[in-house]
Amino acid sequence: MFLSHVEKQLDAKRRLLIPQDFRTTANSGSAGPKAATSDAFEGVYCFASIEADCLEGGGAEFFDRYRQLIESYAVGSPARRALEHKIYGGMHRLSFDAAGRITLPDSLCVKFGLSDKALIVGLYDRFQIWEPTAYAAYQAEQDALAREVLSQRGA
Fold it and tell me: Rounded to whole angstroms, how far apart are CA atoms 110 and 117?
């Protein structure tokens, strides 16, 4: 699973070192039958997040989860078409180099203000890549929401 967060340098070629435990998780694969996307690919799938102003990524299981979601809608339905364009049309397959780095697409770096540092945040079954200042603001919002949710449950 993807846990914790780490800030990493983004070099001039937009290469980002992915932590070893994240690389292991991304490449661990499923214990069940292999899906069409669960090949020998050594890297991550990444796209602009639907829920926040960041990149979202993960391994083959991450991609397969979105594929299954899309396939749950009828072919030609507006919902399926929107998800296909957002996910398949925006998805990047980013291979690890020998040092464990991925090269982020220039368009996504520009979109999310990633230039010299990036924060990689583990979210159990996926991870996000944030511009550190943007994440600090988002994290403050999420912390307040988490406190509210727990207080409503009586925790």
Answer: 13
Amino acid at the residue 104: L
pLDDT tens across the length of the chain (155 residues): 999 999 999 999 999 999 999 999 999 864 333 444 445 689 999 999 999 999 999 999 999 999 999 999 999 999 999 999 999 999 999 999 999 999 999 999 999 999 999 999 999 999 999 999 999 999 999 999 999 999 998 75
Contacts of 30 (CB under 8 A, 6+ apart): 38, 60, 61, 64
Report how far residue 128's alpha carbon sits from residue 6's, in angstroms, rounded to the nearest whole number.
11
**Residue 80 in tokens:** 């399926």
Provide the token pair at 5: 């967060």
Instruction: Decide: 125 and 58 in contact? Cβ < 8 Å.
Output: yes
Q: How far apart are CA 35 and CA 155, in angstroms?
A: 40
Main-chain phi, psi angles of 35, to 5 degrees: -85, 170
- Specify the 3-state DSSP secondary structure of 17: strand
